[in-house]
TrEMBL record:
This is N-acetylaspartate synthetase. It catalyses: L-aspartate + acetyl-CoA = N-acetyl-L-aspartate + CoA + H(+). Keywords: Acyltransferase, Cytoplasm, Endoplasmic reticulum, Membrane, Microsome, Mitochondrion, Transferase, Transmembrane, Transmembrane helix. The chain crosses the membrane at residues 101-127. It is a single-pass membrane protein. The gene is NAT8L. GO terms for cellular component: endoplasmic reticulum membrane; mitochondrial membrane. One of its GO terms (molecular function) is L-aspartate N-acetyltransferase activity. Belongs to the NAT8 family.
Length: 284
């Protein structure tokens, strides 16, 4: 067994689940070594049962979703989405020069109309407050939408259909990370979705191993490419996908999240950047 990242050596070891040893199952129908495409993969290392017993405490297992994981999976997903609210309000504004200009103009207009320094000094706080209100409303609306569609019934949505799957990363008997793969027959690609790691366990290579699991799944199932879309504001998600070999194929600064109403006020106080990534596995 070896670790994919030097920092994991003394912290956390990541190993494959038992399902890798069972050829012929729906999800692992082909055993194809593809590590050269995205670097060495500790997630595909075979597990020695004796070693397994001895190391269970500090080992991260990547395994397929089971019904009992539901509550923890929803918690990790929930936390991963809600932490985007402050990120979108403050960091997100740095990515929106037009909005910065508009807010400066509104503050100036406030002074011209009221001639009051006190009111003008309050204007940026009022604008940021409105930004927080609308970001919270839209992001919680998006979360609610997800929790009532695929995340409401992971078994039906990801585990039953051929070409889709959902994995969890387990540490000390608890779920610490999640990721889904959704096959798209129309263009022979698989979409990587719902990637999230419990905030207490980040920076240990868990997301990278979950990502590799999706790539291995795509190769085994003969998909031509893995694609994904992200509205993550922090660099971590973008660096993660780039480090796995993904390339950005499109970017939009005015993305419409599911559940948005697009009223003028919502458009003034909520904008989100959306990036699409693709990793080509083979030529079509
Ligand atoms: C993005 C996220 C999944 C990363 O999880 P993680 O387990 O901490 O990531 P890893 O430790 O596997 O790091 C993988 C790569 O990501 C990048 N990365 C991770 N954390 C980073 C950070 N804080 N800053 C910059 N890059 C970072 C690095 O390139 C790293 O590779 P390296 O260590 O070889 O340089 C995690 O921060 C998260 O769950 N965020 C909230 C939900 C989210 O935004 N999901 C993505 C939605 S598309």
């Amino acid at each position: 067994m070896h670790c994919s990242s030097p920092k994991m050596v003394c912290e956390t070891k990541i190993v494959a689940d038992e399902h890798d040893a069972i050829p012929g199952t729906k999800k692992d129908s082909m055993m194809v070594s593809s590590s050269h495409m995205w670097g060495p993969s500790s997630a595909s290392t075979a597990l020695n049962p004796v070693e397994d017993r001895d190391m269970k405490k500090d080992v991260v297992f990547i395994r397929e979703f089971e019904r009992g994981d539901h509550v923890e999976v929803r918690r990790i997903f929930n936390e991963g989405i809600t932490e985007r609210i402050p990120n979108t309000v403050f960091r997100g504004l740095r990515q929106q020069p037009k909005t910065q200009f508009l807010y400066a103009l509104l503050t100036l207009m406030c002074f011209v109309v009221t001639k009051s320094f006190a009111l003008t000094c309050c204007a940026p706080f009022i604008l940021m407050g409105a930004r927080y209100y609308y970001s919270r409303k839209v992001i919680l609306g998006y979360l609610d939408c997800a929790l009532h569609t695929d995340m409401a019934d992971i078994e039906a949505y990801y585990m039953k259909p051929t070409g889709s799957c959902f994995w969890v990363a387990m540490l000390e008997g608890r779920v610490v990370g999640i990721v889904a793969a959704q096959g798209r027959e129309e263009d022979n690609t698989v979409e990587l979705r719902r990637m999230s790691v419990d905030a207490r366990y980040r920076g240990k290579g868990i997301a990278k191993s979950l990502g590799r699991r999706v790539l291995e799944f795509a190769v085994r199932n003969n998909y031509a490419a893995v694609v994904l879309g992200t509205t993550a504001v922090k660099m971590a998600a973008h660096k993660l996908y780039e480090s796995l070999g993904f390339r950005r194929t499109a970017r939009s600064d005015d993305y419409r999240l599911p559940g948005m109403s697009r009223t003028p006020l919502e458009r003034l106080f909520f904008q989100i950047r959306h990036s699409r990534y693709r990793l080509q596995l083979r030529e079509e």
